[in-house]
Amino acid sequence: METESSLAIRVEGLKKQYRLGSIGGGTLRESLQSWWAKRRGREDPNSYIGFDARLIGQKFWALNGVDLEVKRGERLGIIGANGAGKSTLLKLLSRITGPTEGQIEIWGRISSMLEVGTGFHRELTGRENIFMNGAILGMTKAEITERLDDIIAFSEAGEFIDTPVKRYSSGMFVRLAFAVAAHLNSEIMIMDEVLAVGDMAFQDKCLTRMRQAADDEGKTILYVSHNMETIRRLCDRCVVMDQGKIVYDGEAGEAIRMYMGSGLAEGQVVFDLSEHTTNNKGLDGGLRLLELRIEGKDEARYQPGETLRFRVRFRTETPLFGVSFRTVVRNETDTPLGTSWTPVMDLAEPGMYLLTAELPLGQLVCGTFYCDIGFFYPLDGGGNMVIDNARRAFRFEVVGPRNWRAGIRGYLALPESTAVSLTLENSL
């Protein structure tokens, strides 16, 4: 364990629990309306369009026992799938919300960008927001004025600095917000996927500034991103999160390999999905993905233009109607290249099913690719709810002549339906 003098952050046994569908955030009148409708067995008049009533009252752990120490001046990357707990961890560290259990110790002031516009008042001008953010961090007007020119120059928003920020584009918003966070007098910077809004030149500028802040000024950087290249360039240490827990803590390159590979062996054609899935809390027992097998290959390697065929075995314990099967193709930096949905299907009989699907690879060139697969349930009013989903369920390679460039020629156009057949192996 590090001494307190060398630490910026210490987290022990951190947990955060949420309740789905619980009343909150409205007026007393709306809360009474919802309570009275529930007592009378009627639909909640204040519920969201498309909300599934089966989720009401369900609890889940967004964080489930996180232990973490971050040294002063360290550049720490945090990666993981959507829903892994990354943003929840940053909100707890930024004191936006409180933990259900556990302890957080922080040495130093925090400036954070958890989403575009966090900490900004849209009716105030850019200049007024700079002074407001500095005051929140405990800086005097003189200290903020001393840094004002540097902030405005870095943000490239000089001619708009006295315009209300509600009239800024998202890119201008991010440039100013990052400039404020990077130049004000804080010891810890927390960034959550905010650079994705900016252009490439500004993204490079921000990465350079964060490295400088850590190396020259001793600031501690916590950086969340789905862009593995920026993680590789910025971070000297990285943690991988999964289902509310830290599953790896170490060197950034190895963390990226673990996150992207998830234990998938090169050339592997049979994949166990039973421990690799994410079941929706509201539909427990409905469907379980069990196994995926790539058909017609001893190794998962393809020439450009071939078609990948795979078979998914899954089990249902209750009838499910109107479900769809989704396939998402991603590259080595976890960027989604294409998504395909099947038409809705009825699984009227509980039992073991086999779904055979195919994936044309005509637009892919050389490289390693990963596929997410899953079943989803359409909600009334739009949107979809996951029944069971496997991130990076399998990997495959496209190989070809040496002069082929790895990547993709445009967006991957998948057919509307990848399903070839669906058969019931046996009834329960």
What does the model show?
The termini are far apart. Residues 280-285 and 402-413 have low confidence and may be disordered. The strands form four sheets. Strands 11, 13, 15, 16, 17, 19 and 20 form a seven-stranded mixed β-sheet that branches. A six-stranded mixed β-sheet has the order 5-6-7-3-8-9, sandwiched between helices. The chain has a five-stranded antiparallel β-sheet with strand order 10-12-14-18-21, with no helix packed on it. The chain has 428 residues and is an alpha+beta fold. It is built from eight helices and 21 strands. It has helices spanning 28-39, 86-93, 126-136, 141-155, 170-183, 200-215, 228-234, 252-261, and strands at residues 7-19, 59-71, 75-80, 101-106, 110-113, 188-192, 220-224, 237-242, 245-250, 270-272, 278-279, 287-294, 301-302, 307-316, 320-330, 336-341, 345-347, 351-360, 367-378, 384-398, 419-427. The chain folds into two domains: 4-260, P-loop containing nucleotide triphosphate hydrolases (Rossmann fold), CATH 3.40.50; 270-427, Coagulation Factor XIII, Chain A, domain 1 (Distorted Sandwich), CATH 2.70.50.60.
Provide a short characterization of the protein structure.
This protein has helices spanning 28-39, 86-93, 126-136, 141-155, 170-183, 200-215, 228-234, 252-261; strands at residues 7-19, 59-71, 75-80, 101-106, 110-113, 188-192, 220-224, 237-242, 245-250, 270-272, 278-279, 287-294, 301-302, 307-316, 320-330, 336-341, 345-347, 351-360, 367-378, 384-398, 419-427. With 428 residues, it is of the alpha+beta class. A hairpin with a 2-residue loop joins β8 and β9.
